[in-house]
């Protein structure tokens, strides 16, 4: 009884979690093979086979949305990790004021993404925006239609806003990881004449590897589902230059009411994310000793 007690205690949570996952996914899978448009009927009308999956590529900008999502998720995650690591290393230097800096640093992550979106809409405004003015002051040409109105800079602007909000999250977690590194190992390396670069590459990064890998994986999946900032800042435009997969789902499901097509698109996204995450886990943790 004592051995089975822990499993009995967590069983309700596991059952509830599986129910919240399995039923929606099963519902989407079943209806991905049906014609169901709420503008036509409140219920599915007939089976379509794999037509919905083919139509995802034929009638929606799925390929462009996938490219934008991969680009945004990859570059933003990498930027947030590198900036967060730099800030974490700075926080670990025991300079004066670091306690206050840590408290201030976490504030952007507490702001709702929609609020961040409206904030950066004003910062990126073509004429009065602070970012546009600063770029112009240092000689960087800003598109006449603004950073959010140009196909060349719209997706980049979304990534900058997201990086501003979530870099502190990386910094705080990586700083906690730095605190877990044994001081005697660092001191021994310094006594042996290791430079700061050697310390970072051969000691700090290997110790941070599990934490960093988990952070990157979680943040990549979050960015793969990015919707709030895209909706507020660009609306997926101009054209489809900043449309992401989540915005594509919104457009087909809540604007065009094409539930069958949206269900098929949902399962395609699930398959793509599963493949990417499994490749990442295999690559990062294949030599990890547990």
> In the CATH hierarchy, what is the architecture of the domain at 62-242 at level 2?
Orthogonal Bundle
How many helices? Answer: 12
Q: Reading side by side through the largest sheet, how are the strands ordered?
A: 1-2
- Main beta sheet strand tally, sense and closure: 2 strands, antiparallel
How would you sum up the global shape?
globular
Secondary-structure class: mainly alpha
Strand content: under 5%
Uncertain runs: none
Order of helices and strands: HEEHHHHHHHHHHH
Average residue pLDDT = 88
Helix content: 55-70%
The name of the CATH superfamily of the domain at 62-242 reads MetI-like
Query: For this structure, what is the CATH class of the domain at 62-242?
Result: Mainly Alpha
Rg over CA atoms, rounded to whole Å, is 23 Å
CATH topology label of the domain at 62-242: MetI-like fold
Query: What gap, in angstroms, lies between the N and C termini?
Result: 28 Å
Written description of the protein model:
The chain has 290 residues and is mainly alpha-helical. It has a domain at 62-242: Orthogonal Bundle (MetI-like fold), CATH 1.10.3720. Helices cover 69% and strands 1% of the residues. It contains twelve helices and two strands. It has a two-stranded antiparallel sheet. It is globular. The model has no long low-confidence stretch (mean pLDDT 88).
Name some characteristics of this structure.
290 residues; mainly alpha; MetI-like fold; two-stranded antiparallel sheet; 2 strands; globular
């Amino acid at each position: 009884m004592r051995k089975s007690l822990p499993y009995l205690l967590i069983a309700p949570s596991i059952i509830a979690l599986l129910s919240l996952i399995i039923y929606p996914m099963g519902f989407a899978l079943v209806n991905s093979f049906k014609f169901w448009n709420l503008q036509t009927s409140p219920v599915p009308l007939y089976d379509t086979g794999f037509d919905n999956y083919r139509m995802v590529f034929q009638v929606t900008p799925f390929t462009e949305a996938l490219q934008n999502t991969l680009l945004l998720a990859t570059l933003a995650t990498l930027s947030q990790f590198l900036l967060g690591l730099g800030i974490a290393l700075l926080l670990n230097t025991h300079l004066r004021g670091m306690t206050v800096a840590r408290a201030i640093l976490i504030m952007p992550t507490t702001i709702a993404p929609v609020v961040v979106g409206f904030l950066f809409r004003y910062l990126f405004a073509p004429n009065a925006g602070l970012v546009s003015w600063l770029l112009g002051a240092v000689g960087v040409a800003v598109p006449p239609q603004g950073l959010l109105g140009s196909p060349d800079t719209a997706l980049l602007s979304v990534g900058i806003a997201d990086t501003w909000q979530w870099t502190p999250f990386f910094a705080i977690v990586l700083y906690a990881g730095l605190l877990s590194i044994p001081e005697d190992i660092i001191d021994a390396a310094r006594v042996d004449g290791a430079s700061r670069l050697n310390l970072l590459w051969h000691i700090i990064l290997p110790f941070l590897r599990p934490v960093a890998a988990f952070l990157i994986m979680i943040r990549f999946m979050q960015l793969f589902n990015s919707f709030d900032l895209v909706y507020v800042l660009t609306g997926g435009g101009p054209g489809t230059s900043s449309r992401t997969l989540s915005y594509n789902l919104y457009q087909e499901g809540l604007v065009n009411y094409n539930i069958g097509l949206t269900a098929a698109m949902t399962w395609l996204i699930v398959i793509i994310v599963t493949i990417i995450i499994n490749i990442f886990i295999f690559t990062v943790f294949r030599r990890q000793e547990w």
